[in-house]
Amino acid sequence: MSILNYITWNVDPEIFSIGPLSIRWYGLLFALGFVIGQRILTKIYVAEGRTEGDVDVITLYMIIGTVIGARLGHTLFYDPAYYLSNPIKILMIWEGGLASHGATIGILLALWFFSRKQKLDYMWVLDRIVIVVALGGALIRLGNLMNSEIIGRPTDVPWAFLFERNNEVINGVRASADPRHPTQLYESLSVFLLFVLLYWLWSKYKARLPKGLLFGIFVTALFSFRFLVEFLKENQVDFEDTLALNMGQLLSIPLILAGIIILIRVWQKPTPVLPDGRKLEPQTVTK
Fold it and tell me: Which segments within 95-235 are labelled E, that is strand?
């Protein structure tokens, strides 16, 4: 195959190391999502009458919910037998294994506790947080690309990637033997565009946004695309080969349905609310 028919990808996942300390692209991009997200969320909260202190607290909840949820999601959804027989391995996050669906559940639970503690409307919080979650998701998928992981199926499209560092054997063939769909890049770009859309909607309407609109758009769009892009991915664990739909698709379906239900309710009753849940009356709407 001509080199012009694909892109050779041979990026070192490690940026640099000092003794036992290693700085990797994935970890940097993961952390960058929280750092940039905190700045954006601060702008959003201050514009709607909240304080920077609220953002510090919600960031802590987000970090805990994301890490615990993503790790438990991977252990329970993709390899429960191994981790239940080796429970200490659950704590070894540095060995890899984080699931975005688990992170979603972890974030939802963490923000529910945050909302109760701060006496804020849960959906108001979700509508604002999904803006920065979308940006974080885009950066994390770039981290997957830098790790040459979560690869796509073989293809002859001209933008296919030849993952030279990937030594995983799939169906008896070494993954680096064939150019493949850069599904990490597909997801990263799609989620970044979702971030742009959500931030634009907030910038244009702010407090006038109907309750649940941003969250409904986020969940429906994100997991609909995730469902579709899974057809271009290699299965991550062997048992998925026996399923009509893989685990990522099965976990996406209830979230898509939840998003659609929320959007229908928004369409039927587009009610803006203040952070504490009070309805925003027409005469108090800010321009």
Answer: 161-163, 169-170, 173-174
Which residues touch 47 (CB under 8 Å, ≥6 apart)? 206
How many CB atoms are located within 10 Å of the residue 17 CB?
A: 10
Spatial contact of 270 and 213, defined as CB atoms under 8 Å apart: yes
Q: Classify residue 280 as exposed, middle or buried by CB count within 10 Å of its CB (0-12, 13-18, 19+).
A: middle
Q: What is the pTM of this model?
A: 0.86
Distance CA 28, CA 142 (A): 11
CA distances 187 to 22, 26, 227, Å, are 26, 15, 11
Rounded distance between C-alpha atoms, residue 254 and residue 162, angstroms: 34
Phi, psi dihedral angles at 15 (to 5 degrees): -75, -50
Tens of pLDDT along the chain (287 residues)? 445 688 899 899 999 888 778 889 989 998 999 999 999 999 999 999 898 889 999 999 989 998 888 888 878 777 777 777 777 877 777 666 777 788 889 999 999 999 999 999 999 999 999 999 999 999 999 999 999 988 899 999 999 999 988 766 655 556 667 899 999 999 999 999 999 999 999 999 998 999 999 999 999 999 999 999 999 998 877 777 777 888 889 989 999 999 999 999 999 999 898 887 778 665 444 44
